[in-house]
Amino acid sequence: MNNRSEHIDNQATMQENEKLFFSKIEIPFDKSRQDVWELLAGKLEEKPEATKIRFFRNRFVTTIAASVLILLGTFSVMRFYSKTIVNPRGQHITVNLPDGSVVELNAQSTLNYHPYWWNFSRKIDFSGEGFFRIAKGGKLEVSSAAGKTIVLGTSFNIYARNNIYKVTCVTGKVKVVSSTSEEAILTPNYHAEIDPAGSIMVKKLENPEAPTRWTNHMFNFTSAPLMLVIGEIERQYNVAVKTNTHLDLVYTGYFSKDMPVEQVLNLICKPFGLTFVKKSDDQYLIVQN
Predict the structure, then answer these.
(1) Which of 85, 134, 177, 235 is the most exposed place for a label (fewest CB within 10 A)?
(2) pTM of the model as a whole
(3) pLDDT value at position 21?
């Protein structure tokens, strides 16, 4: 019993000492217990709503930013994506444009355009030779190094090689613009050629079908430099034709691509007393007798 009484007395003494200790401590806080509980309750009620507002605000900003990036990406693809068609030597191909326009490309010709921007701007970068059948619509522009041709709905032939630029109007009306901004309007059967200085020479063709006979594999030349004719043979047959001397000659005549290349070479060599030697299956040498 004595031990138990002593334990109880000690416990009571400790409790009194704790009360005395805590009564001497001063906490610098001017809020009552009720005030603290009300403040905490208010914070607990406000926090989910504030978090929700911030979540939707951030989500809205993210959605707008993503939409802007998608629009910019789509615009960039539409505006700047281009399609290039390269027709190699020895081939003729037909190209269909987005609006139904058709271009027949001669051998060794290149055409470039923006397919997804076509409804906003019909523009073509072109080199080589092509026969264009343009569907009616807005303005269409075909640009080459030495000039450009502007049309509505028409058909025409363009030859743009080695700084030579020639346009023949077959139907409708076309405007030819040189690199020096000189202009000429062509109607059917009229032909324009831009010289190296940028001047445009216009004439009416006595034989208006001649410039487009290549579409039927026929090639006509009137007082054409012989080297230009040889270049066309190389282009159509995908061969190399060399000469052992400078041939300052002009040629008038024609050849058909349906003829074998050696028959064509004999055709152009014979009037000038020239001969050719076959070096390999795709290489020939023209020599003077």
Answers:
(1) 85
(2) 0.72
(3) 47
10, 16, 19, 24 alpha-carbon torsion, rounded to 10°: -110
25: its two tokens:
């401590």
- Cβ neighbourhood burial of 102 (10 Å; 0-12, 13-18, 19+): middle
How does DSSP classify residue 97? Answer: -
pLDDT at res. 51: 58
Q: What is the pLDDT of residue 18?
A: 54
- Tell the burial category of 99 from Cβ atoms under 10 Å away from its Cβ (0-12, 13-18, 19+): middle
Please provide the distance, in angstroms rounded to a whole number, between the alpha carbons at the two ends of the chain.
149
Residue for token pair 């030697």:
277
pLDDT at 186: 96
For the chain, residues with pLDDT lower than 50 are 1, 7-8, 21-22, 25, 27, 29
Alpha helices in the chain (DSSP H): 2-24, 33-80, 226-237, 261-269
Of 245, 239, 243, 231, the residue nearest 283 (C-alpha) = 239
CA pair distance 101, 110, nearest whole angstrom:
16
